[in-house]
Write a structure and sequence with these properties.
Rossmann fold; 8 strands; 3 domains; alpha/beta; 3-stranded antiparallel beta sheet; single chain; 3-stranded parallel beta sheet; elongated; 46% helix; 216 residues
């Protein structure tokens, strides 16, 4: 006689079983026979990154499929603002959709179950050692040092956006001033061409500042 063994979360346990403090439970023919405890290793840079986000008034949410007790303990250790635990991939997707409706939402994830929510987030961020589908669903992939590069990525994105707006402003302002002057004949074609080339150089130099600018 071969029994049926099932390993899973506390949800596979008989209803009269009260000890749900472990990670993986094993049953045989519907009866509990043991458990397996697995502990996640917190990335050493995680607390530093969370503190950085809070310093920028960015709310942090732990959205996970793990047990609520485990998630709350992790959130308390890292200082995360809100915990949404025991979520299926579909529930994660629905939660990100709801958060997006309130305000732009960035999500960091590395698992297969995170892929739908990563694709739906305003900004999906994954890691270079994440699952392939998570990376394909993301807008940004953090290389080399994992979460350590998240502040730099967010800062670079912010300052790139600022630089684009600056370049558009100067380009429009330059043309608004220069085109009428050239149209009324106050500039020769040669001078006008040189002036246009000079404006391109100014915009290029403004963009190059991103390489040396402190972005966070």
């Amino acid at each position: 006689y071969i029994g049926i063994y099932i390993a899973g979360s506390f949800k596979i346990l008989p209803q009269n079983f009260t000890d749900n403090q472990h990670n993986i439970f094993v049953t045989k023919n519907g009866s509990f026979i043991g458990w397996i405890d697995v502990a996640d290793e917190i990335r050493k840079e995680a607390k530093e990154v969370i503190d950085f986000l809070h310093s920028k008034n960015i709310k942090t949410v732990l959205l996970s499929g793990d047990r609520k007790e485990k998630c709350e303990a992790l959130a308390q250790q890292l200082g995360i603002n809100e915990v949404i635990a025991e979520q299926t991939p579909q529930q994660k997707l629905e939660k990100i959709t709801a958060l997006n409706a309130e305000q732009p939402t960035a999500m960091v994830g590395d698992g297969i179950n995170d892929a739908p929510a990563l694709a739906k987030a305003s900004l999906g961020i994954s890691l270079s050692d994440a699952s392939q589908i998570a990376m394909q669903s993301s807008d940004v992939i953090l290389m080399n040092h994992g979460l350590k590069n998240l502040p730099y990525a967010l800062g670079l994105g912010k300052h790139t956006n600022i630089t684009i707006k600056e370049n558009l402003f100067w380009a429009f302002a330059y043309n608004i001033v220069a085109i009428p002057i050239a149209a009324f004949g106050f500039l020769t074609p040669t001078v006008a061409a040189l002036a246009m080339g000079f404006s391109d150089i100014v915009l290029a130099l403004n963009s190059v500042r991103l390489f040396v600018k402190k972005v966070y």
